[in-house]
């Protein structure tokens, strides 16, 4: 019976509770950085996406440009490329020789080393291991050197290629510039020619015009003399005739205007009537008892401002509910503000007017 | 933006009242978990002890022997405590009175006292859990309301009220409610569980007391007959 065990203190539970909370806190702390990068990274991705698009575009364009330049320049300018090829060949030759020498040297060194290693292998296994390690390192270094040389060569070729491209481009530009200059010159000549032609034409026209003018002047002088005599005689008769004609024309014009006004007013009035009818029909709740044959005529009295003074049934449909619904619709649709924009003549006409309603029009 | 909305950042940037509320809730949560662990240990141990004692009691051992090997009064728990209290009372009363009814009454009283002590021991601090469970959501809600109040007061000063100006404040205010629920939910669950465990144990103690009482009663019946004979 372990009696001490029976008392459960609060030490361990408190430690456990605190540990639990620290754990929960740690989880929240760990979770947040883990879930944080996702949105930020997505934002970065968005940004870099745009950038990468343009970058790839540029790269593609550069590649395409380079390829097209190379293609374009290959047949045109064989000379520099040939020269460069020769140079490159010479360089490659030298390189090859050097590499051969290098290889020979390497072989020799390897042989020597192998020899030494064999000797040492006879002596001690440990030293041999060291030696082998050193040799491996040496080989690695040599390989690295070879790689570096290859890299250098590749870079040199790259540079040569680039130079050739640049040259080609420059020449292409030169050609383009020359072509542009030739074009310009040609245009200038064309312009000069045109100007000369225009000048010639203008002079010819000028001469013709002058001649014509001189003739006209002479004719006019004769004409003027004749006219003066005629005009004096005519003017007296003309004055009398004009007076009578003007009076007639004025009266005609006035009549026409009056007709036009009336027509305008009629149109406006028709429009207004239609507007009122539409407004009322929209506000009209047709009772279900109404048949299609029923028809009610309503007399509407309006103020000049368009407000409704009175609406009454002029001709009943015979259905009281129908009549009432029409009157209610008129009351709902009032006031008709369009009245204010009517000409005064039409306003007077519409102080009182009749509208007839037929469910068929609405349905 | 995301960085400023992490939970620790929001807690550190909250207003003083909200921070106090959060601190209170953290303390309440830690304390309630301490109580949960402690009660859990106590109840598990009590259940084990009860099972062991019942095995021993019903193994046919002599009651005097059992009484002798059980430890002193202060150290015993559960059904053992009941047994000890009842048996001691029985032994004390036996030479003093001839009435078996008086003896049995005394034993029953002693065991009832012991049982209520056990009840107190088992239910100790469980009311604290109940308090945390019922109060901490309100405390957290208070923190949230206070924080949102502050955010709207700040909003009235601001020229442009966009969602992004209100959102961090409301988020930090809502953390208080979250913490209140964080404290309350385990407290509710474990209060129910622990009180169910303790009431089951107490029921078992009661059963044991009845059984023990019946055993003593049987013994006394035998003695009465002997006396009569």
UniProtKB/TrEMBL annotation, chain A:
Residues 92-116, 128-238 have a biased composition (Basic and acidic residues). Keywords: Membrane, Transmembrane, Transmembrane helix. Residues 61-91, 117-127, 239-250 have a biased composition (Low complexity). Residues 55-250 are annotated as: Disordered. It is a single-pass membrane protein. It is found in: Membrane. The chain crosses the membrane at residues 12-32. InterPro entries: Tol-Pal_TolA, TonB/TolA_C. Pfam families: TonB_2 (PF13103). NCBIfam families: tolA_full, tonB_Cterm. This is Cell envelope integrity protein TolA. The lineage of its organism: Bacteria, Pseudomonadati, Pseudomonadota, Gammaproteobacteria, Oceanospirillales. The gene is tolA.
Automatic annotation (TrEMBL), chain B:
InterPro entries: ExbB/TolQ_transport, MotA_ExbB_proton_chnl, Tol-Pal_TolQ. Residues 79-206 form the MotA/TolQ/ExbB proton channel domain. It is a multi-pass membrane protein. Belongs to the ExbB/TolQ family. It comes from the Bacteria. The keyword Ribonucleoprotein does not apply. The Tol-Pal system is composed of five core proteins: the inner membrane proteins TolA, TolQ and TolR, the periplasmic protein TolB and the outer membrane protein Pal. They form a network linking the inner and outer membranes and the peptidoglycan layer. The chain crosses the membrane at residues 12-37, 126-149, 169-191. Part of the Tol-Pal system, which plays a role in outer membrane invagination during cell division and is important for maintaining outer membrane integrity. Keywords: Cell cycle, Cell division, Cell inner membrane, Cell membrane, Membrane, Transmembrane, Transmembrane helix. It is found in: Cell inner membrane; Cell membrane. It holds the Pfam family MotA_ExbB. This is Tol-Pal system protein TolQ.
């Amino acid at each position: 019976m372990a009696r001490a065990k029976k008392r459960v203190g609060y030490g361990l539970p408190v430690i456990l509770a605190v540990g639990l909370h620290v754990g929960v806190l740690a989880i929240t702390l760990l979770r947040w950085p883990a879930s944080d990068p996702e949105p930020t990274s997505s934002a970065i991705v968005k940004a870099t996406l745009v950038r990468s698009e343009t970058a790839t575009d540029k790269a593609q364009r550069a590649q395409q440009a380079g390829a097209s330049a190379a293609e374009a320049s290959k047949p045109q300018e064989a000379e520099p490329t040939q020269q460069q090829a020769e140079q490159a060949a010479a360089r490659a030759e030298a390189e090859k020789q050097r590499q051969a020498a290098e290889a020979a040297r390497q072989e020799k060194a390897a042989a020597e080393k192998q020899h030494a290693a064999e000797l040492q292998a006879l002596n001690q296994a440990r030293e041999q291991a060291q030696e082998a390690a050193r040799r491996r390192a040496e080989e690695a270094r040599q390989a690295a050197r070879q790689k570096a040389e290859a890299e250098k060569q590749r870079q040199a070729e790259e540079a040569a290629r680039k130079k050739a491209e640049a040259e080609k481009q420059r020449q292409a530009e030169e050609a383009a510039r020359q072509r542009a200059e030739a074009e310009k010159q040609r245009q200038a000549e064309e312009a000069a020619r045109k100007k000369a032609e225009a000048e010639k034409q203008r002079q010819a026209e000028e001469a013709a015009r002058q001649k014509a003018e001189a003739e006209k002047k002479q004719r006019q002088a004769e004409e003027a003399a004749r006219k003066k005599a005629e005009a004096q005689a005519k003017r007296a008769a003309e004055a009398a005739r004009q007076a009578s004609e003007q009076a007639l024309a004025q009266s005609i014009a006035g009549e026409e205007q009056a007709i036009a006004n009336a027509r305008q007013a009629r149109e406006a009035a028709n429009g207004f009537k239609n507007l009122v009818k539409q407004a009322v029909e929209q506000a009209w709740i047709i009772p279900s008892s109404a048949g299609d044959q029923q028809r009610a005529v309503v007399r509407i009295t309006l103020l000049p401002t368009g407000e409704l003074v009175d609406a009454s049934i002029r001709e009943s449909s015979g259905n009281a509910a129908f009549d009432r619904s029409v009157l209610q619709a008129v009351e709902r649709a009032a006031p008709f503000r369009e009245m204010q924009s009517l000409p005064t003549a039409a306003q007077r006409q519409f102080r009182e007017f009749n509208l007839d309603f037929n469910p068929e029009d609405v349905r | 933006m995301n960085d400023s909305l992490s939970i620790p950042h929001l807690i550190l940037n909250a207003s003083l009242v909200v921070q106090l509320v959060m601190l209170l809730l953290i303390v309440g949560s830690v304390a309630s978990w301490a109580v949960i662990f402690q009660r859990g240990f106590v109840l598990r141990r009590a259940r084990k002890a009860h099972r062991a004692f019942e095995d021993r009691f019903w193994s046919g051992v002599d009651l005097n022997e059992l009484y002798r090997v059980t430890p002193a009064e202060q150290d015993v728990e559960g059904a053992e405590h009941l047994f000890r209290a009842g048996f001691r009372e029985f032994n004390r009363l036996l030479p003093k009175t001839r009435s078996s009814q008086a003896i049995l009454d005394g034993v029953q009283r002693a065991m009832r006292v012991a049982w209520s002590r056990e009840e107190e021991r088992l239910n100790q601090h469980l009311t604290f859990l109940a308090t945390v469970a019922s109060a901490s959501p309100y405390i957290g809600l208070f923190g949230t309301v206070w924080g949102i109040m502050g955010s709207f007061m700040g909003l009235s000063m601001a020229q442009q009220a966009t969602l992004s100006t209100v959102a961090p404040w409301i988020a930090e205010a809502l953390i208080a409610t979250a913490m209140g629920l964080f404290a309350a939910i385990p407290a509710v669950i474990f209060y129910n569980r622990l009180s169910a465990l303790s009431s089951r144990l107490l029921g078992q103690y009661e059963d044991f007391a009845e059984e023990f009482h019946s055993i003593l009663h049987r013994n006394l019946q035998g003695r009465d007959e002997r006396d009569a004979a």
